[in-house]
Each structure stands twice: as structure tokens, then as C-alpha cells.
Amino acid sequence: MSLDVSLDVNLEVERKTQKIAGKSKTLEAQELLRVEAEAILSAADRLGTEFDHALEIIQDCAQKNKKLILMGMGKSHYVAAKIAASFMSTGVTALFVHPAEAIHGDLGIISEGDVCVLISKSGSTPEIVALLPFLKAKSKLISIIGNKNSAIGLVSDCILDASVEREACPINLLPTASTTLALALGDALVATFAKTDGFNPEKFAGYHPGGSLGKRLLREVHEVMLSLEKIPLGQGTETLQQCAELMSQKPVGAFCVVDQDKKLKGIVVDGDIRRALAQGVSAQSPIEKLLIKNPTTIRPDIIVNDALATLERKDKQITAAPVVDHNGVLVGFVRIHDLI
Questions:
Q1: pLDDT digits (tens, 9 = 90+) for 272-286
Q2: What's the structural domain count of the chain?
Q3: Beta partners for 69?
Q4: CA pair distance 165, 299, nearest whole angstrom
Q5: What global pTM score does this model have?
Q6: Is 114 helix (H, G, I), strand (E, B) or coil?
Q7: Are both 190 and 107 inside the same structural domain?
Q8: Among 240, 247, 242, which Cα is nearest to 278's?
Q9: Does residue 185 sit in the same domain as residue 87?
Q10: Residue 136, in any domain of the structure
Q11: What is the DSSP letter of 336?
């Protein structure tokens, strides 16, 4: 056999092998999708009065103009953020709050009478469990969890069972079927709430961009942002101690560094200062060492709802951002609770 013929035969064998392997992977993917589908069907079969109770709590929250707070860690945090965004589209003031950030100061966004929806496969997520005493004191708690007898389940006012027989992954570890089910339960709450609330195409059109979504869709960032007078700022020559003192006088969560023309050079956040001091960095060190040089910024002329989306779609939720004009000049500062 010639070399050319031998190469042709080998290539053909390789192509057939790849085709067979591809088909095998497709069959495997189909099986994994069926696992997720079965998890949802199983949850549908066992769904009972607890769903009605959860819906009543959310309806009461909306009627009293309270906030619906969604929380989740890890993969569940993406599920929680999506459910919050869906509820906002129906006119509910809904917000995703990252539990890890809440532990370090963001709990201030939760007010008396708000409702918290907690999402956790185990029902024992440490970051959420640590918040339970505070949340329980202020809010009704709805949990979407895989273990009713967990720490979260035991203090919840209403539990939606998100347990799954197995995950849709070969090693039964990756959150797949469990996150799909949690999202499906959240979607069921949103859709049922919308139907019960008389949500229709006319209302949907009213919410985008006008209607009862209020300032999120009708107002621009410059109308709700903090002015320069209320922002701690400097030119970067300040020490950590001076920066901390200025941030105590004007507590917005960050120190803005600008040049002589007020163009933003970067920011320093209070958490970085605390960590630096805890690690033994001198309080007299210049803050430039902690400078975040390319922070997320917001334009003053965008609508509030778009600004909120910008803050929430980051991998790690951002709770505040400097506002700069098209020339990069600092004109204000906005926090997430200014936008809702």
C-alpha cells in the first residue's frame, strides 16, 4: 500500500471514530436533559399548598410596596438574580443581594416588612445561615431548598421543595438539575404572580419604559445620584488613615481618586482598606497602592433601570459606582439602593 493510500485510510478511520464519539456524546447529553426534565416533573407532582402560601406572601409584599429580596451563593446566586430580574418586569420591587456582601454591610438595604427568598441546595449555606437572625427579625422568609430540615428550612415561613434525586452530571456533583429546578420554581412564582395580578401585554408595554416601574424606567441617573459634595474624593496622595477618615465623614463605600480636572483615576473601597490594615499595612501608606484603576462606572444620562442592570450583571455584584460623563469627569456617585 502506498503512503498516500495509507494516509487516506487512516483519515477515514479517524473521521468515523469522531462521528461515533460525537453520537455517543449527543446521547449522553439527551440523557442529562431528561434528568433535569424529570426533576421538574417530580417537583410539579409534589407541589402543594406551600406554593399558594409563598404566592400570598409575595402578593402582600407587592401591595405594601415592600421589596422582594433574592439571595443565593455560588451557582444559586445566578438563579436568584434571574428571578429578581423577572419579578421586576412585573412591577415588583425585587433585588438580588449577595449574601457574602450582605455580611459586610449590605444588610442595610433590607427594611422592615420586606420579603426574602433564599435559594440553597443544601439549605445550610454558611453565608445565608449567618444572616438568618437578622433576616428573620425583619422579613418573611421563603426558601427554595433541597432539604426541608436544614437550618434555613427550620426558620422559613414557607418552603418550596427543590430536592432532586440526582444531578445531571456524570459524577452527581455539579449543580445542574438542582439549579434548573430552583429556577423553574422561581419562574413559576413569577408567572403565577403575574397572572394573578392581572398582568397583560398592555401592562408589560407600560413597564417598558413607562408605567408603574416608576423611577427605574422614567428617571435618569443624574436625578438620583449623590453630588460631588457628598462623595469622599482626593488626588491619590492621601494616606490610608486620611482616606478612612474622609470615608467616615461621607460614608458611601468608596473613595474616588481624580486628577486636577476631576477626571476619574480610580477608586478605593472601604473593604480593601480594612483588609490592608488587618494585614499590617501602615496607616500612613499612600492609598494609590489600593487603587482600582478601571472601576465600573455609570453614565449620568442613562435610565435608572439600565444602571441597576449594569451593577447586577457583574460576576460579583457591585453595590455602588462612580458616575462619569462622556469625558471621564466624575460628576457623582450612585449606590444600588438609590436606584430602587
A1: 888 888 888 898 988
A2: 2
A3: 95, 116
A4: 47
A5: 0.57
A6: coil
A7: yes
A8: 240
A9: yes
A10: yes
A11: G
